[in-house]
Structure prediction request, 658 residues.
Amino acid sequence: MKAEILQLLREQEGYVSGQDICRRLSVSRTAVWKCIRQLKEEGYRIEAVQNRGYLLVQSPDRVTAEEVSSLLKTEWAGHPVIFLEKTDSTNNEAKRLAEAGAGHGTLVIAEEQEAGKGRRGRGWSSPAGTGIWMTLLLKPDFSPSRASMLTLVAAMAVERGIRAATGLETGIKWPNDVVTGGKKVCGILTEMSAEPDLINHVVIGIGINANTEEFPEEIGSRAASLYLETGKRVKRGAVVARVLEAFEAYYRIFLETTDLSALRAEYETRLLNKNETVCVLEPGREWKGTALGIDSLGRLLVKPADPSAGGVKTVESGEVSVRGVYGYV
Amino acid sequence: MKAEILQLLREQEGYVSGQDICRRLSVSRTAVWKCIRQLKEEGYRIEAVQNRGYLLVQSPDRVTAEEVSSLLKTEWAGHPVIFLEKTDSTNNEAKRLAEAGAGHGTLVIAEEQEAGKGRRGRGWSSPAGTGIWMTLLLKPDFSPSRASMLTLVAAMAVERGIRAATGLETGIKWPNDVVTGGKKVCGILTEMSAEPDLINHVVIGIGINANTEEFPEEIGSRAASLYLETGKRVKRGAVVARVLEAFEAYYRIFLETTDLSALRAEYETRLLNKNETVCVLEPGREWKGTALGIDSLGRLLVKPADPSAGGVKTVESGEVSVRGVYGYV
Prediction:
């Protein structure tokens, strides 16, 4: 109920009377009063004025289930929100919940990951309180062969969500890094559990450096945070909400054809590699070319620089590594 | 060490002296004596004769780690064997072990599954003591798109393993049911955990009705057991060993091309659907044709009965259901 009260306080202009809250949520005055007290204890500044009611003056930068849910305007993404102060990795937690029966749209979010995961078994630094460490659980009805495209859908959602919440100019480095000012601000780790012809579940782990003030030296030249780029602290809950709303919108379009044909044009407007030289690292050989965009399956289209190498090639993630020739992006 | 002693007793003709065992395994007489006593307690009949040594007279029908390991002639498949008297499902247990770091080749085997799983969320009846309920964990280095073929490799291994251990005439119903006398004797449930371009792990669950004496009425017309078909009880450990040995051999061939091109001919000699009429159930339409075999990716090749429907079609598991027109097989 805390989430509903928060949402009422947010949506209402000016004061909301206790009576009004009771009537709208069909609960007692005592129940409302208890929730308000709890919210204050959690760091919400709520003014209570006799004969006028309650006013939300300030919210803490928290990613609790109440905070996220009260900001969220989605049909299924983020329903429910499972908040944990600490977990090994939100992907692992989401997988465990999926095996135990959690449904499509469940969001797992933690203040801290003790064993945050990057792609290919790498780690992902996830200190408490500064970042957005979350995993969206999906139980799609399409073929496992289609699932890898979801990672591009997620990149689009993060890119749009961050832009909507902060105004920051961001872009995508193929296939799924979200980049601002030449540095990576978000990593995405998509994992799937499947039978040969059926998806059990997909977990999409999203790690956004939000209010990080400083990075370890070894990654500082490649990592950005929303705070360091904008100079302002963000309310992480709002970023989460905007990302999930964007995901839901893009996912709906994705489902129409179960591929990226309808999203491709928009993806390409955010694609930082587009018309840039990329270096394709295949096992045993390396070649340069110009990235033209993606095809409807999310593969990168690259025109080889060497005219004798023939026409445009489709490059699959995993078979190759793509680097811009001028540094990281 | 029990496994090593069992193996020595099995491989030796006639009696094996205690001294010989000590020397070969570099252990003390007391240690050997303790192991022999434990093995006897577990149901092994071992004769001990002064000045001659030990003779294994009879083994119990168990699938313990010692029993399976002592029978196994493989390089990696079944190393180690993790035995459990009871678990929810060996696939689930193998997945948990994989997440915790268990390696390629680990075998999980249980006397009883409390929540045995079939394909597509169906259950799999797994009573204690009569069946072979096991899962082989793989951590392959190839693309996730190749993994679904492993289920056909597993079917080949089970079919050959059962034949080697029992002499029973068996065959495969595409893609992966092992059938004898027109009834299903084994089900295979392959599950994968993957990133878009990288396999975390594959678990291949194999359920073989071994010494089952009776089936529930509702599945009796479709289910067979090795005991009911041969009239003889099998030593389950021996069946497990033969299946794993066959899997290792077929897997090696599979890895050469990471597809079924080199296994296809052998698969087709065991394919019961071959040259038979099959009914292909696509969403919204149904058609009949003759199954000709499989292609190098494991898809069924079907020549439509309707001449106007064009040439041979490739049928993917999951997109369709294939039924023989004359009953179950």
